[in-house]
Amino acid sequence: EKGRVVAEGVVMRIGKDTVQVAVEEFGTEGNMNMEAIDWNIIVEKQHVYGRPLSKFEGMNFGIFDRLVVSIEANLEDGRHRNLTIDFVGLPGSPELSSTEAELGNAVPVETSLAA
User: Which end of the chain, N or C, is less surrounded by CB atoms within 10 Å?
Assistant: First the structure.
């Protein structure tokens, strides 16, 4: 059991309060819930902006942009296992290293696949 892993994904679709992300490394896709207090989502333009005074201020992304996400299996229901996908940051952003440290038990994809 690997627990939570950090991987890079591609934005496929932007909804009212979710962003659909495809993670090629694991051959899966899922929805990330985006809190309205932190994100300004413009569905018509398929673009997401970090709100001022939130920890995501200055970040923005749209369709086919790459994101760094954490992925974890939700094992609450043994018959129907879902993946929980959470936003970590944008690739190459300085905020990314501090956010990864906050995740604690998350491991980089390279480390988790080598085991």
Answer: N
Tell me if the pTM is above 0.90.
no
pLDDT digits (tens, 9 = 90+) for 15-30: 999 999 999 998 999 9
Give the CA count within 13 Å in the CB-facing half-sphere of 73: 10
Q: Which of 37, 112, 110, 108 is nearest to 69 (CA)?
A: 108
Q: Label the pairing between strands 82-89 and 66-74.
A: antiparallel
CA distance 88 to 95: 9
Could you tell me which residues come within 8 angstroms of residue 46 by beta carbon, excluding any fewer than 6 positions away?
Answer: 13, 14, 62, 63
Residue 12 and residue 20 in contact, taking contact as beta carbons nearer than 8 Å: yes
85: burial class by Cβ within 10 Å (0-12, 13-18, 19+)? buried
Kindly tell me if the per-residue pLDDT of 87 is higher than 70: yes
Residue 113: its pLDDT value, please? 39
